[in-house]
Amino acid sequence: MSFRGIRASKFRHVYGSPAKKGQCFENIRLTKSAHDSNFCAVNPKFLALVVETSGGGSFVVLHVDQPNRSGRHVCRVVGHTAQVLDIKWNPFNDNIIASASEDCTVKLWYIPETATNEDIDHPLVELNAHRRKVSFVEWHPTADNILASVGFDNIIIIWDVSRGSQVKQITCHSDTIYSLAFDRNGSKMVTTCKDKIIRIIEPRSGDVIKQGPSHQGNKASKATYLGDSGMFLSTGFNRYSDREISIWTQADLDKPLKTVSLDSSSGVLNPVYDFDTKMVYIIGKGDGNVRYYEIIDSDPYICYLNEFVSGSPQRGMGIMPKRGVDVTTCEIFRLYKLHATKDVVEPVSMIVPRKSNVFQQDIYPETLAPIPALSASEWTTGKNASPVLLSMKTASRTKTFKPVVYKPAENAIVASEKNNDRKFMFLLEETKPDYRPLNERGTNEPSPQIDHRLFGEEAYQKRNADQSKLSAKDIKTSQNLETKFQSVQKRWVEGNVKKNVSDSFEIYKTNLISGSNSVKSLTTRFDTSKEGDEGECAENLKEMYTAQQKQLYNLKTQVELRDQRINALEEQVKILYSSRHATPLNTPGSSAPLPLSIPNPTNSESGFKLDPAPPRPSATKSSPASS
Predict the structure, then answer these.
(1) What's the pLDDT at 190?
(2) How far is Cα 25 from Cα 48, in angstroms, rounded to an integer?
(3) Burial of residue 557, with CB atoms counted within 10 A of its CB: 0-12 exposed, 13-18 middle, 19 or more buried
(4) Chain-centre distance of CA 448, in angstroms?
(5) pLDDT tens readout for residues 328-344
(6) Residue 516: strand, helix, or coil
(7) Which of 66, 95, 128, 444 is 20 to 30 A removed from 307 (C-alpha atoms)?
(8) Is 19 in a helix, a strand, or coil?
(9) DSSP readout, 35-97?
């Protein structure tokens, strides 16, 4: 056999970096349930954890960028009457989370931005159709408000959560369903079951497209699609209870393309696939390590890279969406590890070692955007679409702000109409200017933006509109021409048809003019020498005369007010002088009046005159009080 050498890969040296103690979440009473879900959900805003409770079921929500080491001041969701088994964040709205519980219900919750130290007990929507406890929930990857729920009644229900209605019930399974996963565009889904059969199902019709034998062990098996390659990966146990990984093609389920045996441990393996890097992470429940592999299109299809090893086992793992990682440290994946032996949640970053601190284009292709490619109604009618992508260079750590409310009258979840919510929705929209010259831009459409409108962008814009059906006003507005209203407005500003609307601010000037400034204002404001057309002299003189009349009226009013003020001051001075002059100087506690400084009557405008103040008493004269 010839030597093939070492396969080249830029992810060969990826390593796991656990967070420091100050960045961990501590003193959270994590659930002790033996269910094989992750009990954790995370997005760029919040971290949700299923917790242990004495009665009913609940989970807590913490801000992902504010590590909590005390276990206090957390938002607690307490609406379920039995243990919570699974939670998942909406991929298109960072504030909506779905929860599945043993009380046979699926509930949707809206988590406010200021979720701290409060209890939430009123869900947005409650979905009741399962007859037994609900084990898993899964959001559709491209369609908005489409949710799949799996119950122990062996039924999969596809929901339109915006209306709280069922789209389809899938009843092709004869035993307990272990897992469910959608493909890249959501047109198919793969399931594993206790009957040891793996199935590919069309979710809208519920028809089984393909099925074949799965892992032959008695414990739970899991499956996940490998992007849009037409392959999927499954984990499970063989007949000797050894854990194994299998690669399948959806065209043939008779036997797997490749099977890799791992070890003889008893923990269930949960696979997580990263489409951007073509890497799959194998997380064992109760294990202390995380293995990661690279997927290729040819034999051997799966290549071992490395593993992250720690000394403490994990109860579950939360997966941060790719838009929430830190590109400045070459972080390509982030896990939130729930410790099994202590109440600690520890972030673990998967990092590609690079010395450069610039953006690494080769390891950060465009990733999933928090924007739905389809509405729920479009998807239910049979339409498929690839997911909307965004650039990691400009949109890393992107968050959404889409406040929603439930309107019982419409029986639907709609966008919030509060002014404050709408303001923040507008501010959080990304602006991407194009600085290229107009002749170089071509017909490139702008990159997709977050559309917060209820019915999407297509319902509000006219595409390929017929110009013949447009009104004259629409044509003038689109071409930036003057409308009839604007022309009338220009004609009736100050009665001068030649005067521009932008000059109308002169009418509202409130500058106080007096003295010689008033004469200067009246002569310069309406200077006819500035006008070039002598035919308008009559109109200018009329305008000047009207303005002069207004100015004279204002001056007369100022003079009258000044005279009234002078008379009032004279009366106050007289009263003050008479009161001081009438008080005896020998009165105990009295003091001699101070002389008033009165201006010279010849220079006074008012013409009044007062007597001089009396002389101060002699210092040698004693008062009756002293004798």
Answers:
(1) 96
(2) 11
(3) exposed
(4) 16
(5) 999 999 999 999 999 99
(6) helix
(7) 66
(8) coil
(9) -SS--EEE-SSEEEEEE--SSSEEEEEEETTS--SSS-S-EEEEEESS-EEEEEE-TT-TTEE
C-alpha distances in Å from residue 303, one per residue of 242, 253, 279, 287, 401: 19, 22, 9, 21, 39
Question: What distance in Å separates the CA atoms of residue 444 and residue 441, rounded to the nearest whole number?
Answer: 7
Report DSSP letters for 212-233, one per residue.
EE---SSS--EEEE-TTSSEEE
Answer whether residue 601 shows pLDDT above 50: no
Cα–Cα distance for residue pair 209/533, rounded to 1 Å: 86
CB 213 within 8 A of CB 196: yes
Residue in this structure with the two tokens 């793996």, named with its chain if needed: 198
- Give dist(CA 73, CA 333) in Å, integer: 28
Query: Beta-carbon neighbour count of residue 618 at 10 Å?
Result: 6
| 8 Å CB contact between 173 and 191 | yes
Beta strands in 342-401 (DSSP E): 344-351, 367-368, 389-390
Lowest mean pLDDT among 79-83, 427-431, 496-500: 496-500
The single-letter code of the amino acid at 71 is G
386 pLDDT tier (thresholds 50, 70, 90): very high
Tell me if 270 sits within 8 A of 38, measured CB to CB. yes
Q: How far apart are CA 46 and CA 41, in angstroms?
A: 8
The CA distance from 562 to 428, in Å, is 57
In sequence order, what are the beta bridge partners of 84?
101
The helix/strand/coil state of 261 is strand
527, two tokens: 């200077």
CA distance 618 to 538: 77
Distance, in Å, from the CA atom of 174 to the CA atom of 60, rounded to the nearest integer, reads 35
> CA 611, CA 594: separation in Å to the nearest integer?
14
Cβ neighbors of 140 (< 8 A, separation 6 or more) are: 146, 147, 148, 182, 186, 379
Of 492 and 354, which is predicted with more confidence?
354
- Distance (Å, whole) CA 534 – CA 528: 9
Average pLDDT over residues 366-376: 92
Q: How far is CA 281 from CA 27, 67, 344, in A?
A: 27, 25, 21
Distance of CA 478 to the CA centre of its chain: 32
Residues 6+ apart with CB under 8 A from 328: 357
State whether the Cα torsion 149-82-339-343 is positive or negative: positive
Tokens of 70: 């005390």
> What is the CA 167 to chain-centroid distance, rounded?
29
Residue 327 structure tokens: 């590109």
Long-range contacts of 519-524 (CB under 8 A, 24+ apart): 521/551, 522/547, 522/548, 522/551
Count of residues making up the chain: 627
Q: What is the DSSP code string of 267-334?
A: SPEEEEEETTTTEEEEEETT-SEEEEEEE-SSTT-EEEEEEEE-SS-EEEEEE--GGGS-GGGTEEEE
Please name the helix (run of DSSP H) or strand (run of DSSP E) that holds residue 564, with its range, or none. helix 537-582
Q: Which helix (H) or strand (E) holds 440?
A: helix 438-441
- Rounded Cα distance between 100 and 134, Å, is 5
- Cβ partners under 8 Å of residue 62, min gap 6: 25, 46, 47, 48, 49, 68, 74, 75
Query: CA–CA separation, 567 vs 535, rounded Å?
Result: 50
pLDDT at 542: 81
Q: How far, in whole angstroms, is CA 553 from its chain's centroid? A: 59
Alpha carbon distance 43, 136 (integer Å): 18
